[in-house]
Hints:
It is a single chain. By secondary structure, this protein is mainly α. The protein has one domain (about 5-145). About 85% of the residues lie in helices and about 0% in strands. The protein contains seven helices and no strands. The protein has helices at about 5, 10-30, 35-45, 55-80, 80-90, 90-105, 110-145. α3 (about 35-45) crosses α7 (about 110-145), α5 (about 80-90) packs across α6 (about 90-105) and α5 runs antiparallel to α7. The longest helix has about 35 residues, at about 110-145. The radius of gyration is 15 Å and the shape is globular. The termini are close together.
Amino acid sequence: MRLSDGLSNPDKKAMVVDDCCNVIEAQLASKSGIGGMALKTAFAALKGVKPGYIPYVVEMLLPECFEALDPIWSEGIDKGDPVEHLVASRSRTADALLSVTDAKVQNVKRQIVRGTYEKLRGSAKQHVEDAVPDLAKVIDKYSKA
């Protein structure tokens, strides 16, 4: 079974989305300084698009994100520890995730969403890399039978 198959299980989906949203919130809370303030302001603007917007977006992105992570996760399984492999490959993991969001933002009609993404994209890779250990734990938690 592929990572994307196990994590798209309807019985687990809501829990995976909630845990991924918690990872995002925790990452935001850990940011400080001017960059952290910019991220928090941007996130607040996105949350204001409509109620439940962030969980909705996470749910829509997850299947493609898991598909993008499948090869890296599979390599980790072959090496004996997929969580550690995802963390050790955090640059590649971030690139895989950002390739999904980069493609998706091209079709976004809401200017606030596209504009916010474009403004923050330059620093996004480091933020995604910072979140990889927590994301790997979420994936591990739900990818088990």
